[in-house]
Amino acid sequence: MTSSRKSKTLYIDREAASVLELVADGLLSPVTKLMSQADSKQVLETGLIDGKSFPFPFILAPSGKKNEEVISSLSHGEEIILLCEGEEFASLKVTDTFEINPHDRVKHIYGTDDATHPGVQATMKRLGSWALSGEYKILKTIPNKGKIDILNAKKRVDAKHTSSLVMAANPLHRGHERLIRQTLDSTDLLVIFLLKPYDSADISYDVRKEALEYYINNFLPKNRVLIVPLENSYIFAGYNEIILDAIVANNYGCNRLTVGRNHAGLGMFYDCNSNKSIIDRVVGIDIEIEIASEYVYCDQCTTLVSKNTCPHGQHHQISYHADSILQLLQAGILPPAVLIRKEISSFLLSKLYPNRFKNLEKLYYDTFATKGLLEEHTEKDFYLELMKLYKTSSLT
Predict the structure, then answer these.
(1) Per the omega criterion (within 30 degrees of 0), is the bond before 171 cis?
(2) Residues 247/251/257/260 CA torsion (nearest 10 deg)
(3) What kind of fold does domain 8-138 have according to CATH?
């Protein structure tokens, strides 16, 4: 291993390091290394690497004056050390260095360089104007647990078909539940890639994972569903997200990817006298991409229905918008069970507002009918009982 005391060093953040790990684990194949200027130009012109789809150049251009000074001084064949959070993360043998336009770079990823776009804002802060390419070696490698877990699960259920969903479940609502069931209905094994962001999330990854595990363990054949964390890097945040999701899912060993019809990245366009979507741009990736129905609650059907089969029209339909349901939770309001399962919303509120009530036990016994026994109750118990009172109809 080359020592950083003898080599030049670059400083990268955890997000950049995680994407480099994805490539090292073979999860972004056909990408195998940082791209040169010539490789980058070819990808921008064709959208392909070795005949397979990849939406934009895979480069490393960390921000910071010192980083840019180092990159601009490097020569072909020189070896450098990448530092992450104060530790030596990888060694890289330089093949090429070149200047980039940060605004063009974010356009390739997000389709815009509008400074009001949250993804553009965050990425521009991390992006420098010099990039370098070459093969690299991660210095401290550990086996990818997700790949191992998926392989073991496929063997356990003798899976002929393995489907995948990519979701934030922020929060997990009834629409998510129906999408999960619909996907599971036609596959042997379902892998749910749960997005794990780098910045502070509205609901932490651990809490979202626990909520999803509760649903799987209590309402699904749990031996056929697996949760795998997916580091939610900026490369997955743009309008090419579905292509990247398909590439990663395929390299994890899945042969199907289900996408909701209301997915922000699905975007239809008109070309050669036919309607097409970004899915039509996926070339050489051995995975079937299925577009699932959009589900809504219809106040006439009084149940969750597909928009394709409900005849009552939009004015009778309630759509499942995670951001709006999240606003209710963040305001401390218990969402109706038609939007989110009461066990899930009770759990989430207890996590978002820990120790919310001054005297929970008194409030509990003053508010609900009890068996007369003194028992300890959690905030989750309180919300569950409160939801039952909302369903009482004789006085409404």
Answers:
(1) yes
(2) -50
(3) Sulfate adenylyltransferase (3.10.400)
C-alpha torsion sign, points 174, 229, 20, 22: negative
Q: Which of the 8 DSSP states describes residue 293?
A: P
pLDDT tier for residue 63 given thresholds of 50, 70 and 90: very high
Is the distance from CB of 165 to CB of 258 less than 8 angstroms?
yes
286: Cβ contacts below 8 Å, ≥ 6 apart: 250, 255
* Interval 184-229: pLDDT, tens: 999 999 999 999 987 767 899 999 999 999 999 999 999 999 999 9
With tokens 């129906």, the residue in question is 178
Q: Which two tokens stand for residue 297?
A: 């609650």
β-pair partners for 295:
306
Residue 278 CA to residue 260 CA, distance in Å, equals: 13
- In the numeric block, the tokens 């005297």 are attached to 359
Q: CA 346 to CA 358: how far, in whole Å?
A: 18
Average pLDDT in the 16-43 region?
95
Return mean pLDDT, the chain. 90
CATH code that applies to domain 145-296: 3.40.50.620
- Alpha-carbon gap, residue 200 to 94, rounded angstroms: 34
Per-residue pLDDT, 30 = 94
pLDDT on residue 395: 65
d(C-alpha 14, C-alpha 85), whole Å:
7
Please give the pLDDT value at position 270: 40
Question: How far, in Å, CA of 298 to CA of 278, rounded?
Answer: 30
Q: Where are the alpha helices (DSSP H) in 101-158?
A: 102-110, 118-126, 145-157
Q: How far is CA 248 from the centre of its chain?
A: 11
Selected residue with higher pLDDT from 134 and 202: 134
Domain ranges of the chain: 8-138, 145-296, 335-390
Place of tokens 């992006």: 127
Rounded CA gap, 338 and 248, in Å? Answer: 33
Give the dihedral sign, CA 75/76/80/83. Answer: positive
